[in-house]
Amino acid sequence: MASVANGLRFQESAFVVAHRRREYGPFDYDWSKDYHGLELLYQGQKFGEYCSPGEIHADLKEFRLPMNVVEVASIVLGSMVCDILAGCGETARMETLLRRLREMGHEKYARLLDESDES
C-alpha cells in the first residue's frame, strides 16, 4: 500500500498506479510472439493488445478497477507503446507520459513514487 495518495511506481517496464493510498498493478507489456505487436498485461494476465495504430484492443472490465486507475493506466500504456515504437529513450518516454497525464487532466498522478513513498 502506498502512503502517497496518487502517483506511479515503475520497476523496469512494469508500473503500478497509486490511487487513494492503494496500489493497483502491476501493469506491463510484452512483445507478441511474432514481434509485430505488444500484449498489454495486468497482474501478468493479458487484457489487450496493440497490433497497429488501427488495431488496438484493451478491456480491463473484469478486474473492476476504479475508473481513474483505468484511465491513468491507459494513458501510460498508450504513451509507452507509441514512444517505444518511435524509438524514444527511457528519459524521453517518461517526460512524455507525465506531460500527457497532465494534458489529459490527471496531473495528480503525474508523479513518480519510490520506496520512500511506501508505508
Give the key terms.
6 strands, alpha+beta, 6-stranded antiparallel β-sheet, 119 residues, globular, single chain, 2 helices
Description:
- The protein is α+β, with helices and mostly antiparallel strands and 119 residues long.
- The protein has one domain (6-113).
- Helix content is 28%, strand content 33%.
- Strand 5 (45-52) and strand 6 form a beta hairpin.
- The longest helix has 19 residues, at 67-85.
- It starts with 5 loop residues before the first strand and ends in a 16-residue tail after the last helix.
Topology:
Blueprint: E1 6-11, E2 14-19, E3 22-31, E4 38-42, E5 45-52, E6 55-58, H1 67-85, H2 90-103
Antiparallel strand pairs: 1-2, 2-3, 3-4, 4-5, 5-6
Could you give a quick summary of the protein structure above?
With 119 residues, the protein is of the alpha+beta class.
Indicate the mean pLDDT.
Answer: 90
Spatial order of the strands forming the largest sheet: 1-2-3-4-5-6
Q: Biggest sheet: strands, sense, closure?
A: 6 strands, antiparallel
In terms of per-residue confidence, which ranges show pLDDT below 50 for 5 or more consecutive residues?
none
Q: Which band does the percent of strand residues land in? A: 25-35%
Domains (count):
1
Order of helices and strands: EEEEEEHH
What global shape is seen?
A: globular
Tell me the distance between the termini. Answer: 7 Å
Q: Report helical residue fraction.
A: 25-40%
Our count of helices gives 2
Secondary structural class: alpha+beta
Radius of gyration from the CA trace?
14 Å
Number of strands: 6
